[in-house]
Amino acid sequence: MIEIENVRKSFGALEVLKGIDLTVAKGEVLTVIGGSGSGKSTLLTCINGLEPIDSGRILVDGIEVHARSTNLNQLRRKIGIVFQQYNAFPHLTVLENVMLAQRKVLGRPKAEAEAEAVRQLNHVGLGDKLTVYPSRLSGGQQQRMAIARALAMSPDYMLFDEVTSALDPQLVGEVLDTLRLLASEGMTMICVTHEMKFAREVSDRVAFFHQGVMAEIAPPAQLFEAPESPDLRKFLAATH
Ligand SMILES: Nc1ncnc2c1ncn2[C@@H]1O[C@H](COP(=O)(O)OP(=O)(O)O)[C@@H](O)[C@H]1O
Ligand SMILES: [Mg+2]
């Protein structure tokens, strides 16, 4: 479970998260929508401890992310994160890319890391690309490799930050299908996305961020059919 309690975060004079309260249950799929600069990415980077927070707290399985005593490296193994663009190592094959962090961070023996990489690459539909170099993959395939790489670390939670935003439109579907698959398998996920149809289909709940505030959170049918705040209505009207 991820528990976010009254989290505030500023960059200089700019308050980017203005007291966020949110709990994500095990197995839940939460999507986060909202305009550019509303604090969505910052929330994700705070959850896995990449960014410090100013006040409040974030607990992952009861462990306080920003407590001094917390071993962040250990905690981050629970939390996979995939960004808009993934910089694979160009001189390593797809298989080697997916093995690398398992070897370096988890210290997995080579055979075990390889077996897990093969398993996860098959999982995301890249079982036929093991020996290919990343430059030979399409953008959608590269994002699926990034997802396989994160999954190979055996995370309990997955955070996705606009993983389809940099893709050509015809490649978006294959990546969303991979996210759908993970959701159907019970992965606990927070997905920041601009894909409203996807958010509607896959989410247990959708959170709307506006200027650093979680202005609305509800199951998708409710949030999309009966938005309460004028800001959300405006946002939805602009995205259709
Ligand atoms: N490292 C940083 N330093 C300074 N300002 C930042 C930094 N990261 C984000 N911001 C600012 O914080 C605000 C929220 O950013 P972000 O969380 O990336 O929004 P979103 O992902 O919703 O577009 C933006 O105004 C952005 O410019
Ligand atoms: Mg962002």
TrEMBL record:
It comes from Paracoccus benzoatiresistens. Belongs to the ABC transporter superfamily. This is Amino acid ABC transporter ATP-binding protein. Signal peptide: none annotated. GO terms for molecular function: ATP binding. Residues 2-236 form the ABC transporter domain. It comes from the Bacteria. PANTHER family: AMINO ACID IMPORT ATP-BINDING PROTEIN, GLUTAMATE_ASPARTATE IMPORT ATP-BINDING PROTEIN GLTL. It is found in: Cell membrane. It is a peripheral membrane protein. InterPro entries: AAA+_ATPase, ABC_ATPase_HisP-typ, ABC_transporter-like_ATP-bd, ABC_transporter-like_CS, MetN_ABC_transporter-like, P-loop_NTPase. Its main location: membrane. The keyword Transport applies. Keywords: Amino-acid transport, ATP-binding, Cell membrane, Membrane, Nucleotide-binding, Transport.
